[in-house]
Amino acid sequence: MTFQQDLESRLAAAVCAVIGEPAAAPVTAATDLRFGDYQSNAAMVLAKQRKTNPRALAQEILDRIDLAGVATADIAGPGFLNFRILPEAYAAYTATLIRDEKLGVPDIGKGRTVVVDFSAPNVAKPMHVGHIRSTIIGDSLSRIARYLGFTVISDNHIGDWGTQFGMILHGWKTLLDHAALEADPIPELLRVYRDVNAATKADPAVLELCKSELVKLQAGDADNLAIWQQCIEVSKKGLQKIYDRLDVSFDHWLGESFYNDQLAGIVEEFLTKGIARVSDGAVCIFASGEFPDEQDPFRVNKENGWTDNPAIIRKADGGFLYATTDLATLDYRVKTWNADHIWYVVGVPQSLHFRQIFDAARRWGLHADCQHVAFGSILGEDRKLMKTRSGDNVQLIDVLEEAVERAAKVIAEKNPDLPAEEAAQIAETVGIGAVKFAELSQNRLTDYVFSWDRMLALQGDTAPYLQYSNVRILSIFRKLDEPFDASSATILLTEDAEIHLARLIARFGEVLPTVIEDYRPNLLANYLLELARGFHSFFEACPVLKSEGPVRASRLALCELSSRVLTTGLGLLGIKVPERM
Ligand code: ARG
User: Fold this and answer.
1) 529 CA to middle of ligand 1, Å?
2) Beta-strand relationship, 311-314 and 369-373
3) How confident is the model at residue 209, as a pLDDT?
4) How far does the centroid of ligand 1 lie from the alpha carbon of residue 118, in Å?
5) Is the per-residue pLDDT at 577 higher than 70?
6) Residue 424: pLDDT band with limits 50, 70, 90
C-alpha cells in the first residue's frame, strides 16, 4: 500500500469516528514539501457541508486519527491537514520495495480490458509527425496500462482502404519501378503516389482513370485486389522495420479494410433504428436532441446561428466513409474483445470526428468508456509546422536516423574509447530514447518545438540525462569487490538527501496511476527527472562506497532501488537504458 492510500484509509476511519458516518476524505501529495509530504482539505469540505468550524473539525479529526509509526500531522490555514511521513516509515516502506517486483505500483486495472488504438498510418502515404506522436504516446500508454494490471490490446488500425488506392493502382500499372519496390517499398509507393497525384492535377483525364481503378477495386476486381493486397503486404513489412527499431509492437493490425463486410449492414441498422436518415441521397446521423447545441457534436455554430453538422455514413453514390468504418471498429472491439475502455491516440484535428463517433456508438447501445487521447503538433525551431527543406512532411525514419547520428557524436565526445560496435548500439539507444523522451515529457496537447540540441543534451530534461544517471549508478556497483545483495539490507535514513531520495522512490507507485487519469505520460517523465535529480543530490551528500557497515548497505540498496525505478520507468516510456555511455 502506498503512503497516500495508507493515509487515506487512516483519515477515513478518523472522519467516520468524528462525524458518525463514512465520507470522502481524499489525500494528495503536498504541493510544497515545507508543509509536509501529503495534505487533505477534507476537514474544510466536510465543515462546509455540516456548517461547522473547519479548524475545530480538523482538530477533532487529528485527535482521533491513528498515525502511530507512520506520520505526524498538523493543521494549517483555514483547516488544511498536513502530514509528514516519518523517516523510519520511509525506511520501512522502501525496504519492502526491494522485494517487490512491481516497486509498489498497485494493480488498479485488474479485470478491465483497454484497447489502445495508436500509430495507424495510411498505407502508401507517408507516415508523418502526427503518426510519430501517436506511435510514441500510444506505445507508452499501452505499457503503463499493462503495468497497472489492465488487459491491454494494442491495435494498429492502419488506413488500408482509402481513396489513395485509386492513384496507387493507376500508378502501379503505369509507372511502378519494380526493382525499387523490391529494394525499399515504402519510398517507391510514395513516389508513385506523389507522381500520380501531380499528374491528376495537371490532367483531369488521369483523375478519371484513378477513380475508375478505385471503383473496380471496391467492386472486387481480381487484378486490382491482388495489387492492393501486395501493396498492403510490402507496406506492412516496411512499417514493421520502423516499429522494430522503435521497439513498438501491436497485438493486432486490424486496418480499415478488415471491416468492409460490416459496413452495409451497419448503415441499414442505423436507418432502421432511426439513428440515421437519408438526406440528399446520403445516409447521415443528425443530433438526437438530447443535448444543448454547445454540447452536441452534430450541431455547429455558423454565421447564421446553430445548424446541423451531420456525420455521413453512406455517400449518395453508395460509398462508405471513415465514420462508417470507425463505428464498425468500435462495435468489434466492444463485442469481440469485451473492451471496457478504448483509447484513440490521434491528433487534435480529428476531435469532432471522435465526438460524433462516440455519441453515435452510445445511441447504438455500445457501452465502453471511449477516450480521444488527442495531441498537438510538432513545430520546427522556427515555430512553424515541422517540414523538411523541400517542404515535405518530415518522415519518421529520417528523424530516427538523424537522432542516432547526432547521439553517436555526443557519445564519441563523452567516451571516445568505446569499441565501435558498442558505441553504435549505445547511439541507437540514446538517439531513439531522446526522440521518445522529448515527446513524452511534453504535455501532449501543447504544440512542442523540436530541438535536436535540447533533446540530446546530457544535462537537461532529457533521456540521455536519465540514461546517464542510471549508468552512474551501475558504475558504483561495478566498483564493488563482491556482488551486493540488497535483500538483506536494512534501510537507514538520516541525511536529508537520503530521506528525500527514499520519498521519491516511494512515490513511484502513486505517480503511475495518475498517468492514466488523464493519459499523460509526461507525469511519469517529469517524475523520473525529479528522481534522477534526487539521486544526484543524495550521491553528492552521502558517501556510498566510502561509508561502512549497515550505512553502506543501506545506501547501496537505495542506489539499487533508484536504478530499478529509473529503468522500469524509462521502460514504461519505451526507452531502453545502456550499461555504459
Ligand atoms: N489512419 C488515420 C490517420 O492517419 C488514423 C486512424 C486512427 N484510428 C481510428 N480508429 N480512427 O489519420
Assistant:
1) 32
2) unpaired
3) 96
4) 8
5) yes
6) very high
How remote is the CA of residue 132 from the centroid of ligand 1, in Å? 13
Work out how many domains the chain is built from and give that number.
4
- Is 303 within the bounds of a domain? yes
How long a stretch of residues is the chain? Answer: 581
pLDDT at 385 over 90: no
Q: Tell me, what's the pLDDT at 389?
A: 60
Pocket of ligand 1 (CB under 6 A): 117, 120-122, 157, 159, 326, 329, 344, 346
Neighbouring residues of 263: CB distance < 8 A, sequence distance ≥ 6: 320, 324, 325, 328
- Residues 477, 522, single domain; the answer is yes
Has residue 125 got a pLDDT over 80? Answer: no
Closest-CA residue, ligand 1 atom 6, reads 120
Q: For a pLDDT cut of 70, what percent of the chain falls above it?
A: 99
Strand partners, 307: 300
Ligand 1 pocket: which of 123, 129, 346 to mutate (most atoms within 8 A of CB): 346
pTM of the model: 0.95
Query: What stretch of H or E contains 29?
Result: strand 28-29
Instruction: Name the domain boundary from 215, 246, 277.
Output: 246
In whole angstroms, give the CA distance from residue 518 to residue 354: 17
Taking residues 459-488, report their average pLDDT.
94
Q: Across residues 29-52, what is the average pLDDT?
A: 94
What's the one-letter identity of residue 140? S
β-bridge pairing 151-155 and 113-117 = parallel
pLDDT at residue 69 greater than cutoff 90: yes
- Residue 447 is placed in which grid cell? 504544440
Q: Which residues contact 51 (CB under 8 A, 6 or more apart)?
A: none
- Look at residue 396 in the predicted model and tell me its pLDDT: 80
**Is a pLDDT exceeding 80 seen at residue 458?**
yes
Q: Name the residue at shortest CA distance from atom 11 of ligand 1.
A: 326
Q: Is residue 103 part of a domain?
A: no
Higher pLDDT pick, 99 / 452:
99
Shared domain check, 529 and 413: yes
Other Cβ atoms less than 10 A from the Cβ of 497: the count is: 17
Distance between Cα 322 and ligand 1 center (Å): 9
Q: Are residues 499 and 419 in the same domain?
A: yes
Whether 221 is covered by a domain: the verdict is yes
| SS3 letters across 144-175 | HHHHCCCEEEEECCCECCCCHHHHHHHHHHHH
What is the torsional sign of CA 515, 518, 519, 525?
negative
- Domain span holding position 367: 113-159+256-373
Is residue 323 scored above 90 in pLDDT? yes
> Residue by residue, what is the 3-state secondary structure of 240-305?
HHHHHHHCCCCCECCCHHHHHHHHHHHHHHHHHCCCEEEECCEEEECCCCCCCHHHCCCEEEECCE
Q: Are 313 and 284 in contact (CB under 8 A)?
A: yes
Q: 301 C-alpha to center of ligand 1: Å? A: 26
Q: Same domain for 552 and 453?
A: yes
Nearest CA to ligand 1 atom 5: 120
Task: Say whether both 430 and 454 belong to one domain.
Answer: yes
Would residue 391 count as lying in a domain? no
